[in-house]
Backbone:
């Protein structure tokens, strides 16, 4: 029996896409893809999710790629333009889970400590969670097994009766390695079917 539901946020409940911003900045799609793959890359961005400051991260790239200074600075100066709003179908599922008082409701997100307060202030459904563990604040990120252990310990969650939802297969495997049953999120419709199968909603 599931007693606790743990949601990822970005890509599951909140739409985040850097190309939403950089299509306004680059005229050439190929150059934009090069920039987001090799300069402001996912690996570089994930280091901010693990606690590195925006200022340090930006300076590292400015020193390496001075010709892209304007674009590099835009990544965090204009990061809110990467947000596409709530994933409404998933928010409706979250509402159903939240309405069930016997279920514990938590979030485990890879998100910078510097930018998360904006999300918390602008997405009201984030206030439905009993607790949110933000990787940047903890200075560790999924799929590090320590972060799964941390949320279990901090909120006294039994992994045997918990379900974890994430759009990253790597993070799902990380949770499963810590004994937490998980769902690889692909769409709100797929998630709803799976949660009904498990008797959660």
Residues:
């Amino acid at each position: 029996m599931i007693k606790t539901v743990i949601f990822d946020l970005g890509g599951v409940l909140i739409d985040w896409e850097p190309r939403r911003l950089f299509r306004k900045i680059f005229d050439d799609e190929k150059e934009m893809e090069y920039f987001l793959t090799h300069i402001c890359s996912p690996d570089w961005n994930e280091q901010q999710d693990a606690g590195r400051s925006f200022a340090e991260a930006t300076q590292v790239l400015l020193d390496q790629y001075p010709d892209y200074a304007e674009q590099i600075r835009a990544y965090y100066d204009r990061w809110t333009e990467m947000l596409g709003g709530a994933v409404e179908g998933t928010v409706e599922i979250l509402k159903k889970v939240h309405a069930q008082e016997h279920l514990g409701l938590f979030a485990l997100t890879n998100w910078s400590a510097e930018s998360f307060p904006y999300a918390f202030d602008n997405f009201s459904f984030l206030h439905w969670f009993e607790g949110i563990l933000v990787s940047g604040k903890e200075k560790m990120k999924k799929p590090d097994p320590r972060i799964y252990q941390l949320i279990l310990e901090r909120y006294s969650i039994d992994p045997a009766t918990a379900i974890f939802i994430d759009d990253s297969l790597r993070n799902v495997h990380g949770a499963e390695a810590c004994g937490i049953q998980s769902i690889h999120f692909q769409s709100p419709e797929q998630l709803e079917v799976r949660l009904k199968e498990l008797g959660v909603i």
Q: What stands out?
A: The CA atoms of residues 18 and 76 lie 10 Å apart.
